[in-house]
Amino acid sequence: MDTMLLTERTLTDLDHARLKRLLAGTPAGQATSAALRTAMDNADLVPARAVPPDVVTMYSRVRLVASTTSQPQVLTLCYPEDAEPAEGFVSVLSPVGSALLGLRVGSLAAWQTPSGQEVRARVSAILFQPEASGDFVL
User: Fold this and answer.
1) Domain span holding position 65
2) Cβ atoms of 97 and 35 closer than 8 Å
3) Which UniProt key words apply to this protein (predicted)?
4) CA-to-CA separations, 45 to 41, 68, 71, in angstroms, rounded
5) CA distance 27 to 94
6) Which CATH number fits the domain that encloses residue 39?
C-alpha cells in the first residue's frame, strides 16, 4: 500500500473553517473526530477558487472502487445533518467520510467499519465538485 496516497490531502480554506467549527462541538476523543482532526492538521490549504477539480471537497460526489471486490460505489461527502447513508450521502464525521476528505482522484482511502474490518478503496472519479461548478458557498 502506498502510504503517501493515504496522507496527502488538500482542503479549501472554507471547508477547513467550517469543519473546525463542526469539530469544536464534538468530543476530542471520538475516533472519527480524531481522524478528521489529523487529516485537517496535515492538509494543504488552498482558496476555494483555486482547488483543483480532482480533489474531494465537501459535497463532492465521488466514485470509489473497493480494493477487494473492484465494485464501484458512488458517495457524496456531506455534513452530519445532511447524511443519508442509504442514499449515498456520507457524513464527514463517519469513518469513510473522514477518509475521503481532501484526497485526489487516484488516491487510496482506508477506513474501519464499525465491526473493525479495514476497507480500502481508490477514488476513481469525481462526478461533481461544487467548486469546479462555480459554487463556493454550498
Assistant:
1) 3-131
2) no
3) Kinase, Transferase
4) 10, 32, 32
5) 14
6) 3.10.50.30
In a domain, 137, yes or no: no
- Going by C-alpha positions, the residue among 15, 92, 104 that lies closest to residue 62 is 104
Q: What are the strands, taking DSSP E only, across 49-103? A: 61-66, 72-78, 89-91
Q: Residue type at 105? A: V
In a domain, 94, yes or no: yes
pLDDT digit string, tens, across residues 75-129: 999 999 999 999 999 999 999 999 999 999 999 999 988 888 999 999 999 999 9
- Mean pLDDT over all residues of the chain? 89
Q: How far is CA 51 from CA 99, 123, 134, 135, 136, in A?
A: 18, 17, 11, 12, 10
Burial of 129 (0-12, 13-18, 19+ CB in 10 A): buried
Cell (9 digits) for 134: 462555480
pTM of the model: 0.89
